[in-house]
Design brief:
It is built from 8 helices and 10 strands. The chain has 299 residues and is an alpha/beta fold. The strands form 2 sheets. Strands 1-2-3-10-9-7 form a 6-stranded mixed beta sheet, with helices on both faces. A 4-stranded mixed beta sheet has the order 4-5-6-8, with no helix packed on it.
Length: 299
């Protein structure tokens, strides 16, 4: 079983840079060499080469290890050696980004719990998904009592020499401590909005907002048209979009593989090609209690 090193990045928006490799702030022409035609999405396929070949020796970085098990484009992530190790690393990162923890006897709201789920998903994803620019409105400030509208997590990959190989990875996240995992079915609703009737939630409007942020906030006008070209008029035509529906869930007494198979099939039934969808389940024991402790800044 492959071990994926999840590095704790020195900046909230930066992937850990080792040997000047891939960075969220990397400009086109920089970063890793990645041919998406090798396999449409299998992110597990990228894990080992990304670390051993692209990042080289990053032994000086603080990290936590996760063990992914993948089958039919469903990947289940289990922390290793223990869930407490993952908890400690996540808490360390929250401290490093100067999070404002809630009171020692307060309970996090559902919004904060959801934001923390997005934060956890981003930590798992950031060294696996090739990305030059990442948009994570809630994950970078997970203890914010409000939830910023928009896609949960978007990772943009700009190929060094061929714009036709540019990609956008869209990761919607649901967090649940319930053994039924029923709440994760809302992922189907979220992805359905990308070609729904509400123009505010469509893929076109989401990409437009991202392109505006790149131009105005990040001062990268050269990327605007490349982002807009990632979209399409239907799910069937979305050759440059990859979906990563993700559930952060209670590990004990749950069947995440079965749930994510059903979710992936439901999303594909809307017209998305199955090869563009890889579903993730990220498991932690005592999830509800851990989210409360993380929000309070407790081990």
């Amino acid at each position: 079983m492959l071990k994926l090193l999840i590095f704790l990045a020195p900046h909230a928006l930066d992937v850990y840079r080792c040997r000047d490799r891939l960075s969220h702030r990397a400009a086109p022409g920089e970063g890793m060499h990645y041919d998406p035609n090798l396999r449409p999405i299998s992110l597990l396929f990228l894990c080992h080469p990304l670390i051993s070949q692209e990042f080289g020796d990053c032994s000086e970085a603080q990290f936590v290890t996760f063990s992914p098990t993948s089958n039919n484009q469903i990947t289940v992530w289990l922390s290793s050696p223990t869930c407490q190790d993952a908890h400690d690393a996540l808490l360390g990162r929250l401290i490093a980004i100067r999070s404002r923890f809630i009171g020692p006897k307060d309970n996090p709201s559902q919004i904060v719990r959801g934001n923390l789920g997005e934060f956890i998903a981003m930590r798992v994803a950031e060294t696996v998904i090739p990305s030059n620019q990442t948009f994570a409105p809630n994950a970078i400030n997970p203890l914010n009592s409000a939830s910023i509208s928009g896609l949960d997590l978007t990772y943009l990959f700009f190929h060094q020499t061929d714009e036709n190989l540019d990609l956008a990875f869209i990761q919607e996240v649901k967090t649940t401590g319930q053994s039924s995992l029923a709440y994760a079915d809302n992922l189907i609703v979220d992805y359905g909005k990308l070609f729904g009737t509400n123009i505010n939630f469509t893929l076109e409007s989401r990409l437009q907002a991202i392109s505006s942020s790149l131009e105005i906030e990040r001062k990268l006008p050269a990327l605007v048209q490349r982002v807009l070209k990632l979209g399409a008029t239907s799910p069937q035509a979305c050759s440059k979009i990859r979906l990563v529906p993700t559930m952060v869930h209670e590990r004990n007494g749950t069947e995440p593989f079965t749930k994510m198979v059903a979710i992936r099939q439901a999303i594909a039934s809307k017209g998305w090609h199955p090869s563009t969808i890889e579903a993730w389940a990220i498991a932690l024991t005592d999830l509800d209690d851990r989210l409360t402790r993380l929000a309070r800044g407790h081990k």
